Amino acid sequence: MQTLTALRVLHIESFSSSETLTPSMKQLRSLEFLRIWDCEKLKSLDGNGEQHIPGLRNLRVLQLIQLPKLEAFPEWMRSLISLDALCIEEFPQLTERWKQTIGEEDWYKISHVSNIYIDGRKLIQGISNQAHDEASH
Q1: Cα of 128 vs its chain's centroid, Å
Q2: pLDDT one-digit tens code per residue, 40-79
Q3: What angle do CA 6, 75, 45 make, to 5 degrees?
């Protein structure tokens, strides 16, 4: 990945042989769009405990789709200051927790992101549109 420093878009799909992302992700400093999809064994976005993704200072869109083993956002999510859109779909452990507690445990890690979508539903200031609509009536 060291030779791909100008890469702007990366899709990681159906990668079933690893429980973590590769630490060399930190070399992708120009990356603006990252989709991680259908990685059934992925447990952590940190490479063996190494916090490498924070190097992605230009990342604007992060899509996390069908990641059944991933349970929480890592602390470094707070450092992705250019992140404008976070899309989470079919992420059972996290989406269930968000439905029950409106994401209190993880909200501080992603509250800086302007557009957050969980299973196609946009969140407004830490609460889902449905919860917002119910509270306003």
Answers
A1: 17
A2: 888 887 765 555 565 788 999 999 999 888 877 777 788 8
A3: 55
C-alpha 14/C-alpha 38 separation (Å) is: 5
The pTM for the full model equals 0.79
Alpha-carbon 26 to chain mean position: 15
- What the block records as the tokens of 76 is 């470094």
Asked if 73 contacts 49 with a C-beta cutoff of 8 angstroms, the reply is no
Distance between CA atoms of residues 52 and 13, nearest Å: 20
Of 118, 113, 102, 120, which is closest to residue 80 (Cα–Cα)?
Answer: 113
Instruction: Retrieve residue 45's tokens.
Output: 């976005």
